[in-house]
Recover the amino acids of this structure.
């Protein structure tokens, strides 16, 4: 099937990245980390968000009937778990303990598990859009070598995840009737704005410490989301050749 052939390149890319990651190893944390308390709290909360086991997403990918895509999803989940592991090291290197949960993550998990694969991917794509400007700000503004290196590694992965999810959503929405597309787009935008609002309220102090602002973060997240929505859910039906 054409879909499987298309997702072969994603499994190849994820596998190559895993091999490169194994060769490079983790950032050296022997020197510890120097982090403002606002940054510690922010990183702890993002770490909780990265720490899910991905079981529900994997099950939905398996049920979709494309084993190549399901294999790519497993590799994606492995990268997210690695992000959680890397982020776990930052508070510890700064002499702080990780947290076991946070209300924002609980809501996010409830929302994306609520329905099928398409809704989960819509929510996940919003999470990636949020993650990119956050990790970029962390990379550029933390002024701590371990944090900078860790954020750079995670940012590179998150930037690759956006086209991966967009690709699958483009196929999933291909046959959606034009009359339903505005409603779906409105729902998707509402999820984005809700996520931006949560970050601005919960991580605003950290953004200030990183030399950024709430306004810059919101504008950047929105700019990343516009092409995702336009690509995955154009106003017209897509005609896919088989």
């Amino acid at each position: 099937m054409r879909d499987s052939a298309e997702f072969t390149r994603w499994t190849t890319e994820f596998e190559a990245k895993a091999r490169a990651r194994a060769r490079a190893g983790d950032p050296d944390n022997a020197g510890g980390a120097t982090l403002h308390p606002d940054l510690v709290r922010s990183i702890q909360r993002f770490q909780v968000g990265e720490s899910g086991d991905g079981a529900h997403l994997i099950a939905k990918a398996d049920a979709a009937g494309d084993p190549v895509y399901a294999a790519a999803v497993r590799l994606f989940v492995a990268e997210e778990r690695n992000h959680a592991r890397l982020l776990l090291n930052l508070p510890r290197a700064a002499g702080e303990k990780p947290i076991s949960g946070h209300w924002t993550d609980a809501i996010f998990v409830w929302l994306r598990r609520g329905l099928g694969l398409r809704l989960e991917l819509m929510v996940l794509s919003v999470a990636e859009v949020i993650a990119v400007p956050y990790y970029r700000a962390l990379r550029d503004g933390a002024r701590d070598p371990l944090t900078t290196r860790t954020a750079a590694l995670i940012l590179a992965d998150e930037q690759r995840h956006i086209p991966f999810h967009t690709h699958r959503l483009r196929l999933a929405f291909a046959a959606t009737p034009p009359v339903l597309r505005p409603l779906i787009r409105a729902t998707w935008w509402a999820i984005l704005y809700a996520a931006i609002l949560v970050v601005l309220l919960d991580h605003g102090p950290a953004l200030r410490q990183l030399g950024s602002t709430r306004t810059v973060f919101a504008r950047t997240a929105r700019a990343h989301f516009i092409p995702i929505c336009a690509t995955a859910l154009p106003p017209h039906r897509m005609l896919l050749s088989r």
Notes: The radius of gyration is 18 Å. The mean pLDDT is 89. DSSP finds nine helices and no strands in the chain. Residues 181-209 form the longest helix (29 residues).
